[in-house]
Amino acid sequence: MSTTAIARKECREIVRDRRSLFSGLFYGIWGPMVMGIALLAMARHQGPLGAVTIGAQGLDAAPSLRGFLSSREVSVEPVQDAAAAVRSQRFDAVLVVDAAYADRFSNSRPAEIALLYNSTRPGSSRQADHLRSILGDYRRVITDTRLVARGIAPAAAVPVRVLERDFATAGDRAGRAFAVMPLFLLLAAFIGGMSVAADVTAGERERGSLESLLVHPVTRESIVAGKWLAVSAAALATVAMAVATSYLVFQHPRLATLDLPVGMNLTDAMTLLAILTPLAAAASALQLFIAVRTRTYKEAQTQLSMLIFVPMIPGFLIAFGSVSPAPWMAFAPMIGQHMLITDVARGVAPSISAVAAVSAITVTVGLAAAWAATRQLDREAVLRRAGA
Amino acid sequence: MIAVRNLRKTFGSTTAVHDISFEVPNGSITALLGPNGAGKTTTIRAITGLVRPDRGEVDVDGVTVAARPVEARARLGVVPEQIGVYDHLTVAEHLSYSAELQGLSRHDASQRTRELLERLGLTRLSTRLAGALSQGERRRLSLARALVHDPANLVFDEPTNGLDVMSAREVRQAIKTLAQRGRAVLVSSQVMPEVAALCDRVVIVAGGAVVAAGTPRDLIARTGCGTLEDAFVRLIGSDEGLS
Lengths: 388, 243
Prior knowledge:
The complex is a heterodimer of chains A (388) and B (243).
Chain A: H1 2-16, H2 18-46, E1 52-57, H3 63-71, E2 74-78, H4 82-87, E3 93-97, H5 101-106, E4 113-117, H6 122-149, H7 170-177, H8 181-207, H9 210-214, H10 220-250, H11 253-256, H12 266-292, H13 297-309, H14 312-319, H15 335-345, H16 352-377, H17 381-384
Parallel strand pairs in A: 1-2, 1-3
Antiparallel strand pairs in A: 3-4
Chain B: E1 2-11, E2 14-24, E3 29-33, H1 40-47, E4 55-60, E5 63-64, H2 69-74, E6 76-79, H3 91-101, H4 106-119, H5 135-147, E7 153-157, H6 165-180, E8 184-188, H7 192-198, E9 201-206, E10 209-214, H8 216-223, H9 228-235
Parallel strand pairs in B: 3-8, 3-9, 6-7, 7-8
Antiparallel strand pairs in B: 1-2, 1-4, 4-5, 9-10
């Protein structure tokens, strides 16, 4: 009964003092939304590049090149200051034809063309790639023509021809970006309860209410269990928010046109919640254990912030392909959930036994952390540190 | 009744309490006096089970605190020096929460809350958030929390600290009434006139040990001083400010 009373009281305070809850829920919404915005931006840059307009300087000296560009749907507008045109983003790419171009070209000497672009801008980089490809084609056409004129078969000058075929679809490319989705969801389990865990332990000590609580005839186990329930509820609310937002992101009509290799329906969303619930509970217990050892709310927040990144490291390594998943990883908290979430997003239904195994291990870790938090709360130093 | 016997407690190399023994009989008010660092807080925390003695024991109505802390705490009502209210709970919610932690059902907790609000004149504040209460109102709330399970033994740590004259009088009157109703009351205070007027017995500690115990009148007579404050100063081994 004491456990539920404490949990109810903590939840009531969390709801009334919205600061703690808000930071978690904010992440739950914005994390997946940022991912969605990034994907939509990526989708915009992944489609076929049709007619483009570029800037050019001195192109009047290269009429055949102008014609070639035109045949490839590249419109050209003259510019006075090519570098300024790129820097000011007036054009994504600008061609600068060398003053000696016509002379060198007619004498079959290498005529220079400069391609100006900004590689930090995806649109500029993409247009530069497009132009590079067209200029390569132009160079081959001119070379072949000159060789034929000299009675040499063009094939003789090409000992090896490399054919490149990129089978990646726009959806595939966007799907790579979805590799971060498990990390977003795993982070939600940690971020959701972070401020609350700091508030119900170090915050309570700082406000001087911990001693009032401890003099009640309640076991330390009941106190930790009540607080654990409240922190877990906050973490779970954030996870639910993150899953719901991710679900909505996947339903965006623009993403639907990308033929993504990943997706999410309502069943998937429920499965993700089932996978993440034990993790949210375990994360909450770990946060309680850390926060109950600290002296102030600020100190607790600092230590809990660091906690977030440590278990994220394996997830990042897998997400970005640095480490190949090994069988044991399926049972490791955080990594196991990461793999399961990835499966769900790819439309592979995880086996119940796999979910149960990693959940059981995760809950065990959570129980151990809660037990350790109980021991911390039983220490006399808990009050002595408060300066009470 | 609260009984403290041969209490000893060290923190690392510091001996907070060397050897303290005293009793708080039912129906009486006992003051625990001492200069800062004398061991008062450690003694009170040993009584409430927040520190475990290295030696000796504390009994509350015959229940040994170290052995059965939860049972012992159920027999105690504690008003800590730090009031420690929850800013986002109302006065009534504080009392209901404490009552539930004392083991009352939600229904009984609600009923007991109403009774206490009325008895302590807090009814008009029942829906006010604790964060909006004055210091005196917080102290009354803290007192109400300690009484929510009608304990037979009460511990007050600096009960009138920071209160205005009227609030301090109200708290003192409430403590007196509790003793008249047969409760064992232990008060830790630095306000000598308050102790002299309120308490039946005084236990003076210094250097972690009891240096004197008796009624205020006994202590004054024993030292030949005119006031309890002077007697206290002399008994703790200081002549500072004595004529």
